Amino acid sequence: MSFPSGIPVSRVSADARVDYLRRVLSITAFGLILSGGTGLVSAAVIAMMPALLGGYAPMIVILGCWAVTNFVARPMVFGAAKWPGFILGTMAQGVAMGFLLLVAMLVSRADFGNPFVLIGFAMALTGFTGVGMAAYVWSGPRDFSLIGAGLGAVSIPMLILMAVGFAFPALFGGTLGLVMCVVFVAISAAGLLYQVNEVIHNFSTEQHVEGAYTITIGLLVLFWNILSLLLRLRRR
Fold it and tell me: Does the predicted model carry a pTM greater than 0.85?
């Protein structure tokens, strides 16, 4: 990884490192709130237009939003248009998330009488996982080069299958669908671990927006897969 400006976080003083991480965390929190708010608005719009839940529409919208997040917004964040890219990418992720949030709210209301039970549980699991990973890599940089290489090969196919699996759940029903959800949770968790390690130790001290974007998207992908797994378990 190159550092066009600033110093790698692993080489700065403890105070400078804490300041960098504080900024990363604050921007990450902003990104999660922005994406979550966008997701709720997206879910409300989809609820008013139920035709969007049928056919190829969910897959097209979800894949389109993820393409924006990864291939349009990300280069902006790591380029000159950091904040516009950050806002675009997190909001695009929220639009895609609206489909899953709506289904989760409907299932939660039917099963528990509260539309936010499954969402809250998925948020808690995602948060605990993120905090645990940060604590694990905090003491020093870890060698996750094999994970990084593997992610490059499986991340795009996984995203495609995530969208297809949501739009056409019958394609991956029963045990196969459950196994796929578990595998996707494991892959996205491994990806988040790799990303957290990179942000905490290998990013430049001036890459706080880039670091926050990386962690925000990693958390959202993990949240999607955990919530999908919970929904799959409710269907059994």
Answer: yes
Burial 185-222 (b: 16+ CB within 10 A, else e): bebbbbbbbbbbbbbbbebbbebbbbbbbbbbbbbbbb
Q: 204 — phi, psi (to 5°)?
A: -75, 155
Rounded to whole angstroms, the Cα distance separating 180 from 34 reads 29
Tokens of 74: 């990300």
Within 13 Å, how many C-alpha atoms sit on residue 34's CB side?
20
Q: How far is CA 184 from the centre of its chain?
A: 12
What do you get for the CA distance between the two ends of the chain, in Å?
A: 44
Q: What is the pLDDT of residues 174-187, one digit of tens each?
A: 889 899 999 999 99
| Cα 145 to chain centroid, rounded | 21
CA distance 155 to 3: 24
Residue the block writes with tokens 């949501």: 166
E-strand ranges in the chain read none
